[in-house]
Design brief:
By secondary structure, the chain is an alpha/beta fold. About 30% of the residues are buried.
Length: about 240
């Protein structure tokens, strides 16, 4: 899953070099990149195309991922409306805002909300009418794990009955590669060798994930209900109904 920086991000050739002896150069041309991060169906979520243009791809992708996570859990998205469901998302970068500033795009009413990590979480809670805590988490590389920890704590504390936790990162500019390269943090050969004497740094990567959490007792109740429905259906079928 590791490749050279794709051309739709930046020309790695323009920034590849020795960061210790050259200005604005990185020793890494590698990364783990998702494909088609610009693809989004705003009307499906009741978002206008104009507003979607101002939305950080991290907002768009995490919204899609949360929707899939709910469906994968066996729930209809509408089932969660009005419930005390929390939402916690790990997010640490603002590359899209940096691009908009660099291109000097005109600002409008969607610019701030489209690039705010708080709205990254709150937009989803509002759209799905979730009534639990809704918060972004930024602890750098551990953001998603801390978001998961916060979600579990929130359920235990009674702040919410269920929670959705996850994280997202999209790498759009060369800034991180340059800065981390100068700090000696990046692997020059695109290989991560954790706890190995050959280790020479790590490889930056993109990704998005979300998980739907509930108490074990609630999950068991759902399982028992599904089993009862299946059993009843099977009995009716056997009886010729």
């Amino acid at each position: 899953m590791i490749t050279v920086v794709p051309p739709d991000r930046w020309r790695w050739e323009d920034y590849y070099g020795d960061p210790l002896n050259e200005v604005n150069k990185s020793n890494s041309k590698w990364g783990g990149f998702m494909k088609e991060i610009d693809k989004f169906d705003p009307l499906f979520f009741g978002i206008s195309p104009r507003e979607a243009e101002a939305m950080d791809p991290q907002q768009r992708i995490f919204l899609e991922t949360v929707w899939k996570a709910i469906e994968d859990s066996g729930h209809r998205v509408s089932d969660l409306s009005g419930t005390r469901t929390g939402l916690f998302v790990g997010a640490a970068t603002n590359d899209y805002a940096d691009i908009m500033n660099r291109l000097q795009l005109p600002l409008d009413g969607y610019t701030a909300s489209g690039n705010s990590h708080s709205v990254l979480a709150n937009r989803i809670s509002f759209l799905l009418n979730l009534r639990g805590p809704s918060a972004p988490i930024n602890t750098a590389c551990s953001s998603s794990l801390v978001a998961l920890h916060r979600a579990v704590e929130s359920i235990h504390a009674g702040s919410c009955d269920m929670a959705i936790a996850g994280g997202v990162q999209v790498i759009l500019t060369q800034a991180g590669h340059i800065s981390f390269g100068m700090a000696g943090m990046l692997s020059s050969d695109g290989q991560c060798r954790a706890f190995d004497r050959r280790a020479n740094g790590y490889v930056r990567g993109e990704g998005c994930g979300a998980i739907f959490l509930k108490r074990l007792s609630a999950a068991e109740a759902d399982r028992d209900h599904i089993y009862a429905v299946i059993t009843a259906t099977a009995e009716k079928s056997t009886a010729g109904e």
